[in-house]
Amino acid sequence: MLGVFRLSKQPNVTIAPATGRLGVLIPGMGAVSSTFIAGVEAVKKGLGEPIGSLTQLGTIRLGKRTEGRTPRIKDFVPLAPLECLSFGAWDIFEDDAYEAASRAKVLEPALLEQLKEPLSAIQPMRAVFDSDYVRRIDGPNRKKAASKMELAEALMDDIREFKARNGCTRLVMIWCGSTEVFHKPAAVHQSLAAFEEGLRKSDPEIAPSQIYAYAALKLRVPFANGAPNLTTDVPALLDLARENEVPICGKDFKTGQTYMKTLLAPGFKARMLGVRGWFSTNILGNRDGEVLEDPGSFKSKEETKLSVLEQILQPDLYPQLYKDLYHAVRINYYPPRGDAKEGWDNIDIFGWLGYPMQIKIDFLCRDSILAAPLVLDLVLFLDLAQRAKMKGIQEWLSFYFKAPMTAPGLYPEHDIFIQLMKLKNTLRWMQGEDLITHLGLEYYD
What we know:
Elements lengths: L20 E7 L3 H14 L9 H4 L15 H4 L8 E7 L5 H8 L4 H6 L1 H5 L4 E2 L21 H18 L2 E8 L16 H9 L7 H11 L4 E3 L9 H9 L3 E4 L6 H14 L3 E11 L2 H5 L3 H19 L5 H4 L3 E8 L8 E9 L5 E9 L2 H21 L4 E2 L22 H15 L15
Parallel strand pairs: 1-2, 1-4, 2-3, 4-5, 5-6, 6-11, 7-8
Antiparallel strand pairs: 7-9, 9-10
């Protein structure tokens, strides 16, 4: 008799229902966040489809292939419905969500006009900002306080007020702000006690994004990091997330060029094709491009972009194929391009007997159009994780990030296909379904 080997069912976890309103708090009211919010409002009004969102359009296979069970993910796990989302944001500029979306010029004016009423109602709160961490932009809508601890307390007051004003039962915070300068962990990050003392003394090693994360975690609000900032990748905030039983994830949304790398590199390795060089350059003209003109901010982005290929290709295991790979990444600010980023790649590969070949990619993408559905998925999945009492780093959400957070001592998984399998198996585990490994074994009674 032919059989199929599968992992046995795991006991399902208890998931609290998604009742009431879910508040979505966003540091940064720029192109990504305004496109995300406008997109959700457009979907709610039937003016567009949530293309690119796994939570809204994706399916999940359950059980044997012969069973024919393939529900939508949103029908399989209890996700918050879009109608129950409320939005709040902080920004150094005073533009409301409608003005921010109009200024970003990602979405057509005709569409934005139909969404003007709900978007205009979203006024940004005063932001925590430090020009030592983001040097190329500045704005007037900033908080003032005697210490960084007072700034954190002011953010916590904002969070409580937003929750009460909007009648929210639950909250999620997702960083959509600018890329901060490259930052390594310091002594102040090594324990929660040291971090809180650093806040009281306004330690310069504590970045604005870390103040937001601290405020969120203190109030048990799940936190996602959509930029390459250090933020929660420090012992102090990891300990706080575990202590307060809060899920966190990050970092740096995987959208354009790096998304293509995580598609192609696993294919090269799967077929044992060598790679001699991979040259990548980007031109973009939105606020992100302007910020990344600063070498310190570019260094943060470069670190996440460069790490992808090494982790996927594993040159230590395959030195004859990848040990001497030359990998370069460039980002150039080009204002006329706006949000329509162009990512150009030249890839030198080699095959049988070492014969060389080339691949060239010109990805004319829209950065915020690719990022917006990732923001939606992360908001809904983090809320799900919180209701399932899953605390600390959520590695199953690596699918969405350039530099996925991992438990200390583990290397991140960058292969997008393995990431997707991990994500869907986590959802199966939550609901007590068999984990699917795609491993079929023949055996006879």
